[in-house]
Structure formats: C-alpha cells, structure tokens
Amino acid sequence: xxxxxxxxxxxxxxxxxxxxxxxxxxxxxxxxxxxxxxxxxxxxxxxxxxxxxxxxxxxxxxxxxxxxxxxxxxxxxxxxxxxxxxxxxxxxxxxxxxxxxxxxxxxxxxxxxxxxxxxxxxxxxxxxxxxxxxxxxxxxxxxxxxxxxxxxxxxxxxxxxxxxxxxxxxxxxxxxxxxxxxxxxxxxxxxxxxxxxxxxxxxxxxxxxxxxxxxxxxxxxxxxxxxxxxxxxxxxxxxxxxxxxxxxxxxxxxxxxxxxxxxxxxxxxxxxxxxxxx
Length: 278
What we know:
2 domains, 278 residues, mainly alpha
C-alpha cells in the first residue's frame, strides 16, 4: 500500500502537469507581466505612481465604486430571479425540464454584440418597450445609456450561471429530508428555510461568485448599451490601452480589478465558512 500510493500520486501529478503548464503560461505569466508593468512610472523607472494616481483621484475611485455596485446589483437580481427558476428545473423532469434548460442557456449561444443590439431594439427610444407604453397611452422612456439598461443586459447573459449552479445543488438534495421535516410538523415555508435553503447554499455560493466575477469583467455589453455616464473599470482599461496608450496605468487598473474580485471571493468564502460553523 505504501509503495502504490506514491506511484499513484506521481501518476496523478504527471496527468495534471499539462494543465499546470497551460495555466502558468497563459494565466499566471500574463498576470506577473501585468503586475510588473503596473509599477512602471512615466519616466520608465519603477514606482507606485500608477496606484497613487488611481487612489488619489476621485474620478477613478468613483469608477471603481460604480463597477462594484453594478456587479453587486446584477448578482442580487440574478439570485432573486434565478432561484425560483432553479427550483422549477430541479423539481420537474422530462421534456419540460429540457425546454427550461434550453431557454436558460439560450443567451450563452448568442454572440454578445448581437445580444446587446437586441436589447437596444427593445429598450431604445423607438423600441418594443416604448411601443407598448404608447399603446397604453403612457409616457415613453429611453433606457439606453443608463445603468438600468446595462444591469438588465448583464442579468440576461449571466442568469444561466446562477440558475444552473443552484439547480445542480438542489438536485443533489435527498427528498426524504424534506419529507422528514414535514412529518415532524414543519410547514412548507419552514421546510424551505431550514432544509432546502441551507442545503442549496453551495450552489448559491458558486453562482454568486461566477456572476459577480463575470459582471466585474464585463466590457462589450457596457460599451454597447451604456454611455460615458456608465463608465466601469474594464471599459476604463480599454480606453487607457487603445485611446490614451498608457499601458502602465492600464496595467495598474487591471491589477486593481483582479485584486477586488479576489478579495470579494475570499471574503465571501470566509463568511460562508463562519456561517456553517455557527
């Protein structure tokens, strides 16, 4: 046994080696290069001037705050809309379940530019939404270029990640646990609050982390649907790279974005661990 275990361990490490090399070359390597670039000053000498520029300017701090607030709003909206849909998928079967899953993943099958222009057709001044409002003799609105339109577009594309994560966790719950709770006198509301919801927390955590991280890095949808008033950190990085050609500052902004997403992930996992212990 002692001889076979090191051999199996070495074999597993060898099988994982290609994946480790891929991540080292295409993920860790670029991050290191980006970090080094971010500490390059205007005169070419190393320094923290780029980060002082970010945290010393109210505009850049406002863009960072807007990015975080937008990501939190999109995550909460996806959770509120996705949980009931995930329960429906987990509790049904057959063709209806397949249809629901197909409808959920459909946004992922459409090109991001086409999807964004589709929302422009719906939410624009002459779009489908205003056509309905005119038919009802109500005042028309123009949501294009607003935070509301950006949030709706992001929820549309990121909702599948939340739904599928929660649905997979719900399908793994033993139905006899709910039957036992109801046999002991718990009504459906208490059964959900004390049995279903806690057991589905792994799916909620996974979906929340995915939606928040992807929302923090969203770029195309914000650029197409939003305006100058809806500036977020990824769009600011793009402008610094392609308009201002300020590579060190863009690298610093990208590093801040990675740090914020990582810190939010670690914080959420820590709070979840404490909640489970409690």
